[in-house]
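Hi support team,

I submitted a single chain yesterday and got back a structure, but I'm not sure I'm reading the token output correctly. Could someone confirm the output below corresponds to the sequence I sent? I've pasted both exactly as they appear in my results page.

Thanks,
R.
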Amino acid sequence: MRIIILLAATLMSVANFATGSRADPVNVRIAWVVPVGNWATMLYEKKDLMTHYGKTYTVEPTHFQSTPTMIAALSAGELDIADLAYSSFGIAVENAGMTDLRIIADEAQDGIKGYTSVNYVTEKDGPIKTVDDLKGHVVGTVAPGAALDIPVRALLRRHGLEDKRDYTMVEVAFPNMLAMMLDRKVDLIPAVNPFALDPRYQQDTRPLFDVTEAMQGPTQTIIWTAHKAFLDKNRAAMVDLFEDAVRVTRFMCDPKNHDEVVQIAAKVAKQPPERIGYAFTGKDAYRSPDMRPNMANLQRAIDVTQEAGFLKTKLDVQQYSGLDILDEAIKRLK
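Hi R., thanks for writing in. Yes, this is the structure output for that exact sequence:
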């Protein structure tokens, strides 16, 4: 009888352990800056398409003002997946010493044929008519080294203009940029969706150049990144996460689902649907339906970051590829 009781207790302990394991999914903290434009604000609005969410993983979208501010959070262990700009990735690896960062997915690409490129705008009736006119003026930037900061510096450098010597950079949050321009506190800003949907952008500003011109080609703008140690420890959950994420990405990129996606985007951006209809069309950034980054365009963008003075040496992006997890997830969907 004693043996039977001990055996029953052992079996119950094993069952409780198994149940406890299933009840503890990995919580993944994913960063975002701009609603709709950043995947963490959109993907998890379609949990009905996710097979593994809540079982092997959950997601905690975490807001940051810019991609460079994510670097400190990554270093402190306060963030698991950072949607870093090409520039911020290079800075994190070289300046912050995060050589274990891995590129794990695409989020957004600028200037791909058939899709838009972000414009930099100036006051419609203001004094800035050409790039050279920016000498002695003020440029609004979300943060030094951000994805929309590097193109300005690179283009102005090609025109012989350097920050602090020939013009001034002022940090401004995206929602406040237009007001700063209309108050004549800055003379150039990037027009980023959904903020650029404000009718005043059409009424009171005009484009001076776009990212494609500044970067001399299309750009792999934003990538998902994570520490190798985190990926190794949670590989099974991460494959599940990407299986779900790619399934939803394909849904959102499919034109036949556009009306539903616009409703989701309107909810996320707190905008009326008619104002957010650009989302996931040619008027938006390009997103790979398989979340696969364009590594060649990423390499060129990081090279421009180095030429702009933010990196001492050029980085070989292939050394930091962690796309094997994405590859495994995609195989399940075929």
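A quick pointer for reading it: The chain has two domains: 25-114+219-333, 119-215. Let us know if anything else looks off.

Best,
Support desk
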